[in-house]
From TrEMBL:
Organism in which the protein naturally occurs: Penicillium capsulatum
Classification via InterPro entries: FAD/NAD-bd_sf, Flavin_mOase, FMO-like
Gene Ontology MF term list: flavin adenine dinucleotide binding; NADP binding; oxidoreductase activity
Keywords, comma-separated and alphabetical: FAD, Flavoprotein, Oxidoreductase
PANTHER family: DIMETHYLANILINE MONOOXYGENASE (PTHR23023)
Protein name in the entry: FAD dependent oxidoreductase
Keyword Oxidoreductase annotated: yes
Length: 471
């Protein structure tokens, strides 16, 4: 084993990516600190019946997310909600990527665990993994990271609890913020983001428009379809739109929204309900009672203002910027290592993956580099590889998609890790097991059968992280 040049590592977040990262770092002898702004591990699988305080509108750039909208909640409740906003988990949420595909090396699922489980089971698995791996013992709960910078050879982090501000060293991870159009400001109670969705309660007999073509829009349509009078799903017919065949039978897919009737100045929003929506196809939707924006999230790093510049386009990113328009984290090798300084690493960015296992393989790669077991190519070579990948995948959201590429990606990452391990006489680490690959093939066949109408499209609701795993 080579002598480590890095001794102390900090991890931001105690969701699954943070837990597996910290677990493997601890197992290799690193001094680890985990910063988690919530009061428990679990990440997006932490359910909170409260809804977050949404940003002011419009909220279309990463810099917009710091501006909080109006909300009746005050005092300590508001302070807590701003410190640790509730996530997108709703009461009936389950995974639709089977649990065998989500099994980590750090922890097995309890015997008899079904393939599809409620969010509480997923949260408990993450928390149990954290306990078994010793991550609980090095986690500071209630710690909100506010700024990270490097001074000399060391990273520093400013963080705060609800009572104090402290400082330490850190290795970072991305966050997500909602993407919201200007129209939301006109009807604050009638137009909400999917992150605030908790159940179909209150939508009985209503006409509901869900805007967005991704998995969360289909997910929500399934929840409200049985009780609403009419459900519409508006999409842009984008690359990542879920096939219309997966919609529940009473939900209608319509074209992209062109405009929403704007309230004249000096009038009440309630006086103009229901809402009229005009589509680009020329069609008009009348009597809409509720609009749910499943328009996705922005990738933001509020603690890295020096690496954020949303004044430039995604295609105009410099060689050092991390965030531009919020659709991509720039300048990363294999979506993990920050090319200008690979002591800054990211675990958990790719989507269309089996998240738990994919993120663990990324964490193993981080450990291999931090220990000196595996070495990265020169910055010039990493930059060349990055540009080649940009040319092949394009800028923006598509850059981080591993749709149909997950197995190859893991194979490449683990080959790099194991080449280093072999050179030091260490045992190799297995990548995807045969059991995992067989389960993955079953998932692919199941989804294809659904698309062809050979299998019912009604299936367990899919979580905001597991939405990344749909093939």
């Amino acid at each position: 084993m080579p002598e480590k040049s890095i001794e102390r590592v900090a991890v931001i977040g105690a969701g699954i990516s943070g837990v597996v990262s910290a677990g493997h770092l601890l197992a290799t002898g690193f001094d680890v600190t985990v910063f988690e702004r919530n009061q428990a591990a679990g990440g997006i699988w932490l359910y909170d019946k409260r809804v977050p305080i949404e940003a002011q509108y419009p909220c279309v750039k990463p810099s917009d997310v710091e501006r909080c909208g109006k909300d009746d909640r005050r005092g300590k409740e508001r302070q807590y909600l701003l410190h640790a906003p509730p996530g997108p988990c709703y009461d009936s949420l389950t995974n639709n990527v089977s649990t065998p595909l989500l099994r980590t090396k750090l922890n097995a699922w309890p015997n008899g665990t079904p393939s599809f489980v409620n969010h509480r089971v997923l949260k408990e698995y993450i928390q149990n993994t954290s306990t078994k791996a010793g991550v609980d013992n090095v986690t500071i709960l209630g710690a909100l990271v506010t700024r990270i910078y490097k001074d000399g050879q060391r990273w520093h982090v400013h963080w705060k609890s609800l009572h104090e501000d402290l400082e330490d060293n850190v290795s970072g991870q991305e966050q997500s913020a909602v993407r919201l159009p200007e129209a939301k400001a006109q009807w604050p109670s009638s137009i909400t983001h999917s992150k605030s969705f908790r159940s179909a309660e209150g939508l009985e007999g209503k006409n509901v428009l869900v805007i967005g073509g991704g998995v969360s829009s289909v997910d929500i349509a399934r929840e409200i379809d049985p009780v609403a009078q009419n459900v519409y799903q508006s999409t842009r017919n984008g690359t990542f739109d879920v096939p219309a065949s997966l919609l529940p039978k009473n939900t209608t897919r319509v074209e992209q929204v062109a405009s929403i009737n704007i309230i004249p100045l000096g009038t009440s929003a309630e006086a103009h309900l229901p809402i009229t929506v005009h589509l680009k196809s020329g069609q008009t939707l009348h009597n809409i009672d509720k609009i749910i924006l499943a328009t996705g999230y922005q990738m933001v790093l509020p603690f890295f203002p020096q690496y954020t510049d949303d004044r430039i386009s995604v295609t105009g990113a410099t060689d050092t910027v991390l965030v531009t328009d919020g659709t991509q984290i720039h300048n990363l090798h294999q979506d993990i290592f920050y090319i200008p300084d690979p002591t800054l690493t990211f675990v958990g960015i790719p989507f269309y993956t089996a998240t738990f296992t994919l993120f663990e393989f990324q964490a193993i790669a981080v450990v291999a580099f931090f220990t000196g077991i595996a070495r990265l190519a020169s910055r010039e070579e990493l930059r060349k590889e990055y540009q080649t990948r940009l040319a092949a995948k394009g800028h923006g959201r598509s850059f981080h998609s591993l749709k149909d590429e997950e197995v190859e990606y893991v194979r490449d990452v683990m080959e790099w890790v194991n080449t280093g391990r072999a050179s030091h006489g260490l045992p190799l680490i297995e990548g995807h097991t045969n059991t995992w690959l067989e389960e993955k093939q079953l998932q692919i066949e199941r989804l294809e059968a659904i698309r062809q109408g050979l299998l019912s499209s009604h299936k367990p609701s899919q979580g905001p992280a597991e939405a990344k795993a749909a093939a």
